């Protein structure tokens, strides 16, 4: 069965190979002790979709597993060392600049203080997300949270 491809902008393009991307969904407990806060970061200046909010992560390098790529990217971007990561969802998103296969992994333990090493901004968010604008590839993740938490209403502002 072929994989569903989500268009980021509504344009349907010819099939092409997807770039594999490891994405970290860092979660922490809210005031009631439930893991309902998650970290969003803004895309750094100079990258496509600069200023859009996303989950931290990046492309796999040759020979890396998704977890290894995630650990490397989160260390490079945020200065933290992650513990285990749990496979969560996968999604193919088609942008004008590339088709990407996003491997979302949940991370609830890490060491080190968060540092924004690439000029990003960060926000601990919950639903509905207040940071704007969010990257198209981020919106399905907010829907998965909404389903799991029984959250009704908008998932993000704007
Ligand atoms: N990091 C991240 N990328 C995402 C998310 N959602 C989404 O569609 N993407 C897309 C945007 C980019 O096309 C691609 C990730 O590429 P990137 O440019 O951020 O990766 P990278 O850090 O390895 O970049 P570079 O070294 O090539 O500059 O995945 C997300 O939540 N986080």
UniProtKB/TrEMBL annotation:
GO terms for biological process: DNA repair; DNA replication. Residues 18-147 form the Nudix hydrolase domain. InterPro entries: MutT-like (IPR047127), Nudix_hydrolase (IPR020476), NUDIX_hydrolase-like_dom_sf (IPR015797), NUDIX_hydrolase_CS (IPR020084), NUDIX_hydrolase_dom (IPR000086). Its EC number is 3.6.1.55. GO terms for molecular function: 8-oxo-7,8-dihydrodeoxyguanosine triphosphate pyrophosphatase activity; 8-oxo-7,8-dihydroguanosine triphosphate pyrophosphatase activity; 8-oxo-dGDP phosphatase activity; 8-oxo-GDP phosphatase activity; metal ion binding. The keyword Secreted does not apply. Its cofactor is Mg(2+). It catalyses: 8-oxo-dGTP + H2O = 8-oxo-dGMP + diphosphate + H(+); 8-oxo-GTP + H2O = 8-oxo-GMP + diphosphate + H(+). It comes from the Bacteria. It holds the Pfam family NUDIX. Keywords: DNA damage, DNA repair, DNA replication, Hydrolase, Magnesium, Metal-binding, Mutator protein. PROSITE patterns: NUDIX, NUDIX_BOX. Belongs to the Nudix hydrolase family. This is 8-oxo-dGTP diphosphatase.
């Amino acid at each position: 069965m072929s994989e569903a491809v989500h268009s980021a902008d509504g344009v349907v393009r010819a099939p092409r190979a997807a770039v594999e991307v490891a994405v970290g969904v860092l979660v922490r407990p809210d005031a009631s002790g439930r893991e309902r806060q998650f970290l969003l970061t803004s895309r750094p200046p100079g990258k496509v979709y600069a200023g859009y909010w996303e989950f931290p992560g990046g492309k796999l390098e040759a020979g890396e597993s998704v977890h290894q790529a995630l650990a490397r990217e989160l260390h490079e971007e945020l200065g933290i060392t992650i513990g285990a990561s749990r496979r969560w969802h996968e999604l193919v998103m088609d942008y004008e600049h590339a088709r990407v296969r996003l491997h979302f992994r949940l991370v609830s333990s890490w060491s080190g203080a968060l540092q924004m090493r690439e000029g990003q901004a960060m926000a601990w968010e919950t639903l509905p997300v207040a940071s704007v604008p969010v990257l198209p590839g981020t919106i399905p993740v907010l829907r998965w949270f909404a389903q799991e938490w029984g959250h009704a209403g908008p998932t993000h502002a704007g």
